[in-house]
Amino acid sequence: MSQAAVRQFVRRVLPTVCRTSRPICTIALRKLAHNPTQLATQHRNPNTILSRNGGAWTSDSILERIFYVLKTYDKVDPEKVHLDADLVKDLGLDSLDIVEVCYHMERSMHTWISDDERETIETVRDIWEIVMHKLLYRMA
Description:
Layout: H1 3-20, H2 22-30, H3 39-44, E1 48-50, E2 56-58, H4 59-72, H5 95-109, H6 115-120, H7 124-139
Antiparallel strand pairs: 1-2
Helix pairs in contact: 1-2, 2-7, 4-5, 4-7
């Protein structure tokens, strides 16, 4: 099956799959390269997510960026930020703060988090999963 055929299949099926399971999307799309010239780069480092603007994201660099945005936010105690931290209970954010944090994430990583997705965010892990999904889906 050609790379283009796989990309078309994933674009058609992925929105349905991603509503039920974001980790399936990350596994399915991690194997796909944006274009044939990037295949060699992706095989060298399978954890690299290549973006359309030429940059490369890894799951660790995305997590580091999320931590950086949260730790630099005024109302958050930097020592309390970890992957399973609850945004409301542990970090003390309210709904407006979560909107602002998501806005900073969007600006920092050149992606977009919809209002429906924003309403489902409870922990730092939720933000990480949504951003991973967005960056991987944009790559396919």
